[in-house]
Amino acid sequence: MPQVQDVTVLVVDDEPNVRDYLAQILRDAGFKVKTASDGDKALAMIRTQPPDFISLDLVMPRKSGHKLLYELRKDKKLSRIPFVVVTAHATDELGRDDLEDIMQNRIISGPGTYLEKPVRPLDYVRCVQRAVGIEETPDDEERIDLQAELRQELNQADPHALRRALAALKKKAR
Fold this sequence. Notes:
Blueprint: E1 8-12, H1 16-28, E2 32-36, H2 39-48, E3 53-57, H3 65-73, E4 83-87, H4 96-105, E5 112-116, H5 121-132, H6 138-156, H7 159-173
Parallel strand pairs: 1-2, 1-3, 3-4, 4-5
Helix pairs in contact: 2-3
């Protein structure tokens, strides 16, 4: 059974904040993460060093997630990389038809699924774990949920309160 630290995930999304958010969730869970901002860059990276899993936005400029999966289909080895489509366009005219084609016609032979944005961190991590055969543990769930809650609170916190909390943590660590 693979260990989380041995699994490389390629996160492909044209929106930097979404790409960074998804990559951080995976890093916090212990995965090695690489990122690409579009399907063309992702394809070059995949051909050079195939990841163990691909997290793929559906609607992107240059080469969409749908087109990237068709490119991967042409290579037997690359077509077996498990993936998840992470999209905000599962039910609208921008992505509905492409997503339906991916899911119904099994564009590539590896396991494929999709998650709708905004993605819940635990659902995202569990999706990757299941696809690559990593055992899910209750400790993961508690840690991931706690990290997500902490990240949300940090984003909304007063800088002075953060400084006081950091000082208290440092003092306690001594």
